[in-house]
Amino acid sequence: MTRFGALVIKNSNRYAVCVTICGRVGVNMDAALLPDMLGYKDLADAGLTRRQFDRLIDAEEYERIAPGQFLRAGATDDTTAARMAIAAKRPQATLCLLTALSIHDLTDEIPTRSNIAIPRGTKPLTAWSAPISWHHFDTATFDIGRAEHALPGGRAIGLYSAERTIIDLFRLSHEWGSDLAIEALKRWLRVKGNSPSRLLTMAKSFPKGRPALQNALEILL
Fold this sequence. Notes:
With 221 residues, the protein is of the alpha+beta class. The chain contains 9 helices and 11 strands. The protein has helices spanning 43-46, 50-58, 78-89, 97-103, 162-171, 173-176, 178-189, 196-203, 210-220, and strands at 6-11, 14-21, 24-30, 37-39, 62-66, 69-72, 94-95, 114-119, 132-137, 146-150, 156-160.
């Protein structure tokens, strides 16, 4: 071991990391007891120094998923890892459009990237583990129909309701096409308890999408 070296010992899938500084052992910690997700700002609360954490990264205990954000290697899939990083850095980020549609089981299309809305004027976050498609929504209506989607470790990211997602698809049909919106509406109408009147009430806040939505409802009902 060098003067500033680190010894990594594997023991039943738990890693003990001993960091030696100036020839003396300063810290003996069990990395398995640390949180799955850590950022540099969290190190003090976790009882780590920047140098100790860098040793864990070098040992491939943690991998970078966004600027300043790290996740325990193998803790979850790449898409979930990206959403965790985004939720930590952009609390208003909200799953929307095709991604939300898929979560609500209103489409058979499989999203190739996460569609995430942020308030207009908010800067997107670089997430390296999975592709993201960012969408800037009006701040005045951003929270309408917004709930939460659970993530590992008790975390959550925003998720638009099925109703809000359908409205968004109708108001953005020039980008997404009307077929996706109409098929989602058909599937939504088949679910017992869904109320077209409640959907139209929410749509009043989105005048660009309400006429096409109302016309579709009149044809389908």
